[in-house]
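for the writeup, i need someone to sanity check this before i put it in the appendix. the sequnce is what the collaborator sent (i think, or maybe the updated version? ugh). structure was predicted straight from it, no edits. if anything looks off just tell me and ill rerun, i have time this weekend
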Amino acid sequence: MLWAIFRAMPRAVRRKVLEREEVVIEWRITGRRDGRQDVRQLVIEDGRARLLHGEPLEADLGLMMDGGTFLLLATGNASGPHLYASGKLELYGDIWLAMRLPRFFAVRQAAAGR
């Protein structure tokens, strides 16, 4: 399920964002049995979005969380500020970018008002 969300992520970026932004957003998913992290980077540049495996580029914003937290966030069943305040979401880099991030995606929110 996690990887299906990641694969769909570039297609969910709003056209307006593609036209205006040039950013690298890094997602670090923790909780693997071997203690390592799965890393994906969403690169928005030149009017398009693409997903990279690993961390080949310097990220403007990084988000670190476990897989369950990522699912809650991606499906709109939890808010970023709430997850951050509860310690379930760690951010590094451009915090202002983190505040704009929900508006980057054309995805229906499951939990209105959260």
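Residues 20 and 36 are 34 Å apart (CA to CA). The beta strands are 23-30, 38-45, 48-53, 61-66, 90-93.
thx in advance!!
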